[in-house]
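User: I'm new to structure prediction. If I give you an amino acid sequence, what do you actually give back? Let's try with this one:
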Amino acid sequence: RTRWRMEELRGQIDEFCSLTAEQKSAERCLASIVEKLKGKSLTILRVVEQAQSALTNENNEVRNRGIMLLNEAISASPVSDPQSKSSLIQFYGDRLQDEPCVKEVLRGLKLLIESLDGPLSDDLRRAATHAVVGVLKYVHVQSLALSDRHKAFGLVEEALGRLELPLSEQDVDVLECWVQCMNGERDPRNLLLCFRLIPRIAAKFLTNKDKAEDFFNVFSCYFPITFTPPPDDKVGISADMLREALLECMTCHFLLIPFSLDLALSKLAEAESTGCRLDSLDLLATLATKHGVQGSLGHDGCQQVWSSLRLQIVDSSEQEVQERARSCLRHILRIAAEEVGDERQEATGSSCLHTIMKTLKMQTTVDLKTPQELRSRKGLSTVLCAVSAHPVSAKFVLHDSLYALRDIVLASGGESGFARMYAALQVIHEILLSSRSLWMYMKGRPAAGGKHPLSEVSKDTFDTLTSVFVHDSFAGEESSKLKQTSLQSICELIPVMGGEDDVRRAFDMLVGEFVALCRSQDERLVSIKRLVSSCLAMMEEEDHPAAISTLSGFTALCLNDDALWGHGLEVLRSSFAVSVRVARAALDILLEARRREGVAGRQKLIFQGLLSVIDAVRLRHNGVSPGGGGDDVAVKEECVSIGSLFATKIVPELVADLSCDQLQSSSFAGCFEPLAGMIRATLELVGEGGGSKELVSLLLDKYSTPIAPSGFSCEQLKIIQSVFMSAVHADLRFLDESKRGFVRNLAASLLDGFDFSQEDPGDCRKSIVESVMNKLD
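Assistant: Good question. You get back a string of structure tokens that encode the predicted 3D arrangement of the chain. For your 777 residues, that looks like this:
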């Protein structure tokens, strides 16, 4: 019976592999074999044994169909026995030299290799290694179809990645074979796979610099990536994915550095497309990141890179290229500064940083003489890169540049001098902004340490800037431009200045310009408001001792001048949100002004100011991280404390002074809406505690009665209801039952007897009452 079954199996195999068999007959034979494999009445090794005549046939098509049969059998009934799997992998590995059958051999190997998991036995490891070596040595990958090339690359990826097979240089020259396999590949899917393989290949097999260039050339020819996915793309491979993977290839090994550096510099020098130059700049930055400036560029390379970057910054007409070149320079300078390891190296100037900064400083000296010229101005942006990069690089140029610009400001005059002086002030401002960026970097990295980079020159720079306000060479529009630019820089200096007198002097100048522009409604008012706001925020951020007194004085100034108040309130609102401490100081001033003014006078302004304080404190409270540390807890507690003060003292006092009858008075009409805003912000801030229930009860008693009677205009009624609803909307959820009943009965009584055919203010009352009822329900 066994002999009969084997003869039957051999007949089915011969029928399937026959070139003259009908397709349906071949399919029936294959289905019968697969069914027996699934039913365990037949093993895959038996199939291989009985297929020998087909697998060794001289006819290429017959052999190919024999391997196809095995692939179908393996796919339908995966092999689980390690010994059988090992034998099959060995068999397929031997067949890789059979070129006409390579396509089907790769398919079968893919099925078998991907099925390997867990620790491999020695036999399996040897068989798999033998197969992958065969792919590298014997398969002419680039002659295959796209999907078959992908299978070949995938087998190499399995070997070097998941399986970590012990490929040996004695068995195969991996680098040379890989060059042959990849050379000429164009499909983006295969390229992405190849790019991801190259760093692994380099890490394991690139040990000889003689082979590095050929290896580099096989993938560097794709630089820069110019791939654009088709409109109906379904693969999902983007140009950025290829670009990042190729960048990793070109920087993955120290033996590839010289070739990558030369390629990047040559591409920049050739002034090719914008994309090419951007990618070349990214390549330089990545080399420095992965291998250090000393390791990737060296002293000679630093000179070349500096020259190339400066040309891109100064001569390029592309804004994006200029910005990327500056970013690259800043990045390289920061890494080079971090590599300055000891004082001896710094003193002798033997570091790469000194190599770059020596040339940069020489060129800066020239550019500083004519800051009004476009080319010089672009060149001076390299100073900003050095200043913002690192304290060590900033030390080379910061002080000298500021003093050179000071000389221009103090000496400029006459018609031709305005452009030079104006440009010098602009560069000073840009340097101060870069210094602020450096200071933030230093604060985030305690190892960078040291004083504020401007601490030694802040006084002299401040004197330079204030001299603009007494300069008599310019007037009108020119004078305004010079002053505003100086004020921008003064704002940057305030947090650095140590003396409170200087701070107050600086702020007085700023506020003086603000007041003048407010009263004249000058178009520069918007920018000066931003300056004042920024200045206040920076002062508090730096915890400057003059912050509170300065803010307090500004609050009092704005409160006493109608022309200033609207604009000043915008400025104050942002400063309150920065610091609860400042908000409380301003609150004291507003309350004192209210006590001094009584219930008349500037009530509307005071109410608006109080609303700004509580609303900013609410935002500050909501912006603090719930899981923050001790400082965050203290901020939250202080915010809630101010909210409780509003709930238990400030709002009740305001309510006591504001009866509905006063709504008819022009002195008080503008107070009700900010009062409603204060109530909403207070109740949100304190929640169910902090006197909120008592405040709600007070409001319901005070402002519910006028809902029913007529006698108020629709607009007046809406104002009353905004106060009433600010309490009801936010806090019905925790009203006690008696108050809930009171509100429900009130709403029901208001609905009774309404003539709904009438319009305002009846419609207004109806909508408000319905809103209350919906809330209660």
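You can read the tokens as a compact description of the fold. Here is one thing that stands out. Confidence is low (pLDDT under 50) at residues 625-630, 753-762.
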